[in-house]
Specification:
Immunoglobulin-like; Zincin-like fold; nine-stranded mixed beta sheet; five-stranded mixed beta sheet; 29 helices; aminopeptidase
Length: 887
């Protein structure tokens, strides 16, 4: 692929893809590990690609000290061009040749956490997307797959554990207190899947026999002292292995599978073949330190990285534009895994709702902002910026729609064909979709495949328009569906998508009309669906299960939404009806010229009371229905956004809900507060979630009426809690309500968990995300940055405080005096100096500045321009701010 330039930033375009001029058959790496100066000997066996015209060999490298280059054992001429090592005088023809490169690097100085780096005395690597070039010169692209043998040498006392990909074939002692380990990966892989770890670690081990009869060793490595927090991660790994073999017939293909946890990591985890490196956040858990959300996150991420073993490792991406080939597919697989693990219909629905909330709150705004891009992008300046919710979550929805169109069994057939065709290859999103369609030749997907693939090439969130007409005389109901999609950067007009629309009809009493449930495949800009034999005007239930990632525009009456909320057989649309009722009231209050008082009417409050009292509904589902839409989601529905007005309205809604349902909140708390010994199962976690919401509401009501009873009870529950979920819920109730008891509780919390880094992240995040009732949150955040336990260079800690404020607390961040924006610009520049990936993610907090009302809009633009003006800005951040400022 060639690189063009826009301004000072090089741009890589998908249309310029070209196959590699050289192929790498094998790589033999030898590391002499030293934090200040690690020596890397790279012996490769290469050959010219016969399908590509002869040209020089160009190897990528960054922050390396080059000491030696040998070709077939002899010195060779070379030159350095920018960040590439160029060799022109190489053997002709297709015969393989040996290339030896000796370099050194300084892992201890690697603050970018890409390539080889040191964290708390342990060596780690992160090579996706382009980190391997920081280890040795190489063809750093995903379509170059090779066999790897790795030898690690290090001081035995300092680094007793030496790990790399594949199987351990040899280990032993060396002179001078050093030792070595040799690893061989039996599967070819791209260099982004290379990994090594060396340090003082301990492991939880488990031997298993797979369904196919294979014996495997599973290991979860952590720092000494954390072993008691690894049981859930190991259980999640075993469940993932069993599920993938049962659901898709995909077995574990290595003698051993290893997970290693580190606290310094830019991402959640990385699927390196056989040696997954994880952020500690997604490994460590016990009831005293981890919440239900942490347990669920560990199960999901462990599953995700393990499922990559096939969808990403055995079959990988041809180029980085195809990133969703592995990520979207694997998110779909981890979502399906978590739903299957949840068990009950209700628990599955809760998982689906939670996934859709992420899509709507993060991906829909991305689709409507300056960083909008297709699931398969057409160009990028910095590939790290495209590890986005569009690639992951929207990509997952595109895969889910394929399963909807061919059925669960048909999708399994398609997966089987996909691996039969492409195992061991680097392929494209088109190859995947073609395999699913070819395995189901009579399906709607096969019939509409070229049009369906517009989901990969067109950015933006489609609008699904729905309107109905009932003909009483003909006993006929006609539902008209239409679609449109707004312009996005570089794509002013869009062609029609293929949209599967699951729907059904309810009668006035809320009973499902027999035979009305169906999935309509909308492939035109407009089409009609006719229901015959309908006796009275029905209530349509549209987009059940969120069958497509679209925005539904249907002018339902409040009465219809209340019917759906009370009776719909589809749990997702039941929840959705409650959200739409709340959103309708929030928008009316935001757009009103009147002072914010009581946005909620009696009909809505009665409906919420009925949900809270409904004995047939699970606690987890009740908690979701009774949680109001977030400030960011409300803002996305408006053309012009006043963040302070939205914050005031939502707070008024919360307070009104707290007061009006106070007796019911008391009953809900008392009925769900005691759950016995901690279990992170859906029923128990749902009960804790509802008890936590009830306690928050009761403390909020107490704030208004000055009643000290419930804050006192919250403080006592905080002190007595037998698990972290209940403890954090009680602390959140005190902090969220602004209780005077919050400060002593925060101090006690810090004293209890001073040595637990992941728990301290919660402590920082809770304070940075608190409601801003007097402009006090920004001063508090600045104060906390000076706290002895705050470390800006640790990504988790930076995210817990700075991101919680800038990205997740709009009411506090968007200040009339622009102080929040100034703080943001200072932190972006400060972090960019040592970790551009983290800085670029923070830079996106102002993606949607053009929607802001004045004075916010001008102040936000000024802050973005201040960042853009920095001369030595990284490509990561420059791409974000340049696109944000573009017309």
């Amino acid at each position: 692929m060639t690189s063009l330039r826009e301004g000072n930033t090089p741009v890589v375009k998908r249309e310029d893809y070209a196959a590699p001029a050289f192929l790498v058959d094998s790589v033999d790496l030898c590391f002499d590990l030293d934090p200040a100066k690690t020596r890397v000997l790279n012996k490769m066996r290469l050959r010219r690609n016969p399908a590509v015209a002869a040209q020089p060999l160009r190897l990528d490298g960054e922050d390396l000290n080059l000491a030696r280059v040998l070709v077939n054992g002899e010195g060779s001429s070379f030159k350095l061009e920018g960040k590439q090592l160029v060799l022109e005088k190489l053997p002709e023809g297709e015969e393989p040749f040996e290339l030896e490169i000796f370099t050194t690097c300084a892992p201890a100085k690697n603050s970018k956490l890409m390539g080889l780096y040191v964290s708390q005395g342990t060596f780690f690597t992160q090579c996706e997307a382009e980190g391997f070039r920081r280890i040795t010169y190489f063809l750093d692209r995903p379509d170059v797959m090779a066999s790897y043998q790795v030898t690690l040498r290090a001081d035995k006392a300092a680094y007793p554990v030496l790990l790399s990909n594949g199987n351990l074939v040899e280990q032993g002692d060396l002179d001078d207190g050093r030792h070595y380990a040799r690893w061989v990966d039996p599967h070819k892989k791209p260099c982004y899947l290379f990994a090594l770890v060396a340090g003082q670690l301990v492991a939880r081990e488990q031997r298993i026999r797979s369904r196919s009869g294979g014996e495997h060793l599973l290991q979860v490595y952590v720092r000494p002292g954390d072993l008691d927090k690894t049981e859930h991660a190991m259980n999640s790994l075993m469940a993932s292995i069993a599920w993938d073999e049962a659901r898709f017939g995909l077995p574990l293909d290595l003698e051993r599978f290893m997970i290693v946890a580190t606290s310094d990591f830019n991402m959640g985890a990385m699927e390196n073949k056989g040696l997954n490196i994880f952020n500690t956040k997604y490994v460590l858990a016990n009831p005293a330190t981890a919440t239900d959300a942490d347990y669920a996150g560990i199960e999901s991420v462990v599953g995700h990285e393990y499922f990559h073993n096939w969808t990403g490792n055995r079959v990988t991406c041809r180029d980085w534009f195809q990133l969703s080939l592995k990520e979207g597919l694997t998110v779909f697989r981890d979502q399906e895994f978590s739903m299957d693990m949840a068990g009950s219909v209700s628990a599955r629905a809760v998982k689906r709702i939670e996934d859709v909330r992420v899509l709507r709150s993060a991906q829909f705004p991305e689709d409507a902002g300056p960083m909008a891009h297709p699931v398969r992008p057409d160009q990028y300046a910095e590939i790290n910026n495209f590890y986005t919710v569009t690639i992951y979550e929207k990509g997952s929805e595109v895969v889910r729609m394929q399963q909807t169109l061919v059925g669960r069994e048909g999708f399994a057939r398609g997966m089987k064909l996909y691996f039969e065709r492409h195992d061991g290859q680097a392929v494209t999103c088109d190859d995947f979709a073609q395999a699913i369609a070819d395995a189901n030749p009579d399906s709607e997907l096969a019939r509409l495949l070229p049009q369906f693939k517009r989901w990969y090439s067109q950015a933006g969130t489609p609008r699904l328009h729905a309107s109905g007409y009932f003909d009483a005389e003909a006993r006929r109901y006609t539902l008209t569906l239409g679609q449109s999609c707004p312009a996005t950067p570089g794509q002013p007009s869009k062609k029609a998508f293929v949209i599967p629309v699951a729907l059904g009809l309810l009668d006035a009493q809320g009973r499902e009309i027999e035979g009305s449930a169906r999935t309509v495949v909308l492939s035109e800009t407009s089409q009609t669906v006719v229901f015959e034999g309908i006796d009275a005007a029905p209530v349509p239930s549209i987009l059940r299960g969120f069958s497509a990632p679209v925005i539904l525009e249907h002018d339902s009456s409040d009465a219809e939404l209340l019917t759906l909320l009370a009776h719909d057989s589809d749990p997702f649309n039941r929840w959705e009806a409650g959200q739409r009722l709340a959103l309708r009231r929030a928008l009316a209050a935001v757009q009103s010229a009147d002072a914010v008082h009581q946005p909620l009417d009696a009909a809505y409050l009665d409906a919420m009371r009925a949900i809270l009292r409904a004995p047939e509904l699970d606690a987890a589902f009740k908690e979701l229905v009774l949680t109001l839409p977030g400030e960011g989601y409300i803002a996305e529905q408006l053309d012009e956004v006043d963040p302070q007005r939205i914050h005031a309205v939502r707070e008024a809604m919360r307070e009104q809900l707290a007061h009006a349902l106070q007796e019911d909140w008391i009953q809900a708390f008392e009925a769900h507060q005691d759950n016995g010994a901690f279990r992170p199962d859906p029923v128990s976690s749902g009960r804790r979630a509802l008890a936590g919401l009830a306690l928050n509401m009761l403390c909020l009501a107490a704030r208004e009426n000055g009643n000290p009873v419930w804050p006192g009870k919250a403080l006592q529950r905080f002190k007595d809690a037998g698990n972290m979920t209940d403890r954090v819920n009680a602390l959140s109730a005190l902090v969220g309500s602004g209780s005077a008891l919050a400060q002593p509780a925060l101090e006690r919390f810090h004293a209890l968990f001073k040595g637990e880094e992941l728990v301290l992240d919660k402590w920082f995040a809770l304070q940075a995300g608190a409601p801003d009732r007097g402009g006090n949150i920004l001063p508090l955040v600045k104060q906390l940055m000076q706290h002895p336990d705050f470390h800006l260079r640790n990504p988790n800690r930076a995210r817990s405080l700075i991101f919680s404020y800038c990205n997740a607390n709009p009411g506090a961040f968007h200040r009339v005096d622009a102080a929040g924006y100034r703080f943001w610009s200072e932190r972006v520049l400060e972090i960019d100096a040592f970790n551009p990936q983290v800085a670029a993610r923070l830079a996106r907090a102002l993606d949607r500045w053009k929607k802001l009302a004045e004075p916010y809009r001008s102040a936000a633009r000024e802050a973005i321009a201040r960042v853009a003006a920095k001369a030595d800005l990284s490509n990561d951040v420059r791409e974000v701010v340049t696109r944000a400022l573009a017309d």
